[in-house]
What does this fold into?
Amino acid sequence: MSVAVLQPGTMRVSVLMPVYNEAATIAEALRRVRSVPLDIQIVCVDDASSDGTTSILRQLHESGDIDELVIHEINRGKGAAIRSALARAAGDVVVIQDADLEYDPQELVRLFEPIRNGRADAVFGSRFRGDTRRVLYYWHSMGNHLLTMLSNMATNLNLTDMETCYKMVKTDLMKSLPLTSDRFGIEPELTARLAQSGARIYEVPITYSGRTYAEGKKVGWKDGAAALWHIVRANFLSPKAPRYVPETPKLAAARAKSEALQSR
It folds into this structure.
């Protein structure tokens, strides 16, 4: 798949990377993110790794390959790690990036385009609309399709890949969402909250190189079962996301000033 080259502009993208036991891939994953032709801030959250990942992250932070590093002393899950990373995000846009090599960061340019040109408030990267993907588990694929269908029925969206990692969202919108899921329930919850906010959501095709369980894949059938509950909870129970009102330059400057004061 060809990816258009976009020169760094005035909008900054904060890449939120939850990391858990990815010693074998984290350095390469970060190298690939750094090679993307966008103005990027990398925020990593180590979720109490036990395989040496933490020390690797500390070294990469000291060398400047990571802009912000948060260490969780106990394992809290992907959703909790994303919230911790979001608190450190300084960009105009945020995107979730796994620390493995399943997703190609060069395609962040493709996700960024509908936001950059003013058409979208959030963009999902669909693994099921892409040109190239690794052939793996049939039932895992069917589970993804089923969860996406149930999520779409609840949100009235027509997504093809609700469970995708690649969700790019305007930062002020992302920070306005009441996200509470600690583990993989963050995917259906974030989708529901964006729908509730009235955000303009786009979907673009991406390539996908999935891992086997022997190679380190962590999502299992229990996470799929839990996602059913999170679809119900996020769509039909409180709290709901407020309607999104895009920030004016004046409001953006006020928010930045407030966050700067809070960080002192």
